């Protein structure tokens, strides 16, 4: 976050926080780390809590690999995520170095209720609107009472509830490739995701302050809340838009497998390591499903809007006018859709679960495969070559 020097007086910036012997900064129990603002002051990091109190981490940015920040319970905010949240050291100069190329967009705003913002890698903050493009390294955040739906270039959907924040670390996607990857860092709030082609042709990694997940094609709900002073993460599996089920691989912060989540009738609760409380699996009740319904519905609505674009011969992320995809390509795409069977969700099987050849849980993959075929014809080999060079420029690990 970039603010003016005059605003620093509200931060009580004479309160210094020192690192421990391991080089980690552990914040006191009363400090809500994951809802805080992160501000550069020269080589120092100022961390301002929601109540206006602040702590100064002197010379934090002098370390070529900035230290992790930990809450009192051991929940972690990785150093490279802190860099994203704090923004670049010289935002004005960074912004002048080159404008945004819309063809490098990895996603766009699909649905928005209320107010949400994006902080770009150049430090500039922009209020989001439907259709606004997002890029690797962006930080997106919803305000109280607001929700946000994002569609990504591979068909992945993310819905954010109110007061949620996430870092779009990377999305490398080649429709013709098999080593695609996506990394999303969820800082605070509630999220629903519908995994797209990257999960099927590589892998998607989702990181939180207390757990990480490997996504192999599914729909999931993740909550990151502070309960009784403890940063608590809950993870649950949900049916895909076609009724099928995928899989969530759930790991602790040390990379140890907690569970392969393959059922929807329970959720996992993970608390940070300093609590010495093991992860637990509990049954989901009617209240859980009711609480999840709105955000799941928004994700499904975003997916349907994105799918409609594909049916109309477009792409998940709308291409800027004058891009390398020409009118002849679009005409061929439209002809293919008119002449062929079109893109329809696979039928439910006799159990009512899901879709398509291969049994339950494969229907959404069958649908995405059809989408991917159309998308590949449109994008050709352009995607990875163009975007990989862009990501290497934007995704800086300092």
Task: Summarize the structure in words.
The chain starts with 24 loop residues before the first strand and ends with a helix. Helices cover 22% and strands 30% of the residues. The longest helix is centred in the last third of the chain and has 26 residues, at 286-311. Residues 2-13, 324-366 and 377-398 have low confidence and may be disordered. 44% of the residues are buried. The chain has 398 residues and is of the alpha+beta class. The protein contains 7 helices and 23 strands. It is globular, with a radius of gyration of 21 Å. The protein has helices spanning 79-86, 91-96, 197-200, 286-311, 327-339, 363-379, 382-394, and strands at 25-26, 37-41, 44-48, 54-57, 69-70, 76-77, 107-113, 116-119, 125-127, 133-134, 139-142, 147-152, 157-160, 165-172, 180-194, 202-207, 212-215, 219-227, 230-238, 248-251, 257-261, 266-270, 280-283. A hairpin with a 4-residue loop joins strand 16 (202-207) and strand 17. It has a domain at 104-303: Jelly Rolls, CATH 2.60.120.1440. The chain has a 17-stranded mixed beta sheet that branches. Strands 1-5-6 form a 3-stranded mixed beta sheet.
């Amino acid at each position: 976050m970039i603010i003016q020097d005059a605003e620093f007086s509200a931060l009580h910036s004479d309160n210094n926080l020192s690192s421990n012997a391991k080089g980690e900064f552990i914040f006191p129990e009363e400090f809500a780390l994951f809802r805080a603002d992160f501000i550069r002051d020269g080589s120092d990091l100022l961390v301002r809590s929601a109540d206006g109190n602040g702590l100064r981490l002197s010379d934090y940015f002098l370390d070529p690999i900035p230290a992790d920040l930990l809450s009192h319970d051991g929940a972690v905010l990785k150093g490279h995520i802190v860099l994203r949240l704090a923004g670049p050291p010289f935002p004005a100069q960074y912004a002048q170095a080159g404008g945004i190329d819309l063809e490098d967009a990895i996603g766009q705003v699909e649905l928005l209720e209320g107010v949400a913002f994006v902080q770009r890698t150049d430090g500039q903050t922009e209020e989001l609107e439907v259709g606004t493009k997002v890029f690797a390294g962006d930080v997106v955040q919803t305000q109280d009472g607001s929700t946000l739906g994002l569609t990504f270039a591979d068909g992945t959907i993310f819905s954010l509830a109110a007061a949620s924040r996430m870092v779009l670390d990377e999305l490398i996607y080649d429709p013709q490739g098999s080593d695609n990857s996506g990394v999303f860092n969820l800082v605070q709030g509630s999220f629903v995701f519908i995994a797209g082609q990257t999960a099927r042709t590589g892998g998607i990694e989702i990181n939180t302050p207390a757990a990480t997940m490997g996504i192999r094609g599914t729909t999931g709900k993740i909550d990151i809340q502070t309960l009784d002073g403890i940063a608590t993460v809950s993870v649950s599996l949900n049916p895909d838009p076609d009724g099928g089920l995928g899989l969530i691989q759930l790991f602790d912060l040390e990379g140890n497998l907690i569970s392969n989540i393959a059922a929807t009738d329970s959720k996992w609760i993970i608390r940070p390591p300093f609590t010495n409380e093991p992860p637990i699996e509990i049954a989901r009740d009617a209240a859980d499903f009711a609480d999840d319904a709105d955000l799941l519905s928004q994700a499904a609505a975003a997916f349907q809007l994105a799918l409609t674009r594909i049916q109309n011969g477009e792409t998940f992320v709308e291409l800027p006018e004058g891009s390398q995809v020409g009118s002849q390509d679009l005409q061929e795409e439209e002809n293919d859709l008119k002449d062929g069977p079109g893109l329809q969700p696979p039928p439910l099987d006799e159990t009512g679960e899901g879709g398509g050849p291969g049994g339950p849980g494969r229907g959404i993959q069958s649908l995405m495969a059809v989408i991917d075929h159309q998308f590949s014809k449109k994008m050709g080999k352009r995607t990875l070559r163009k975007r990989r060079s862009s990501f290497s420029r934007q995704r800086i690990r300092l």
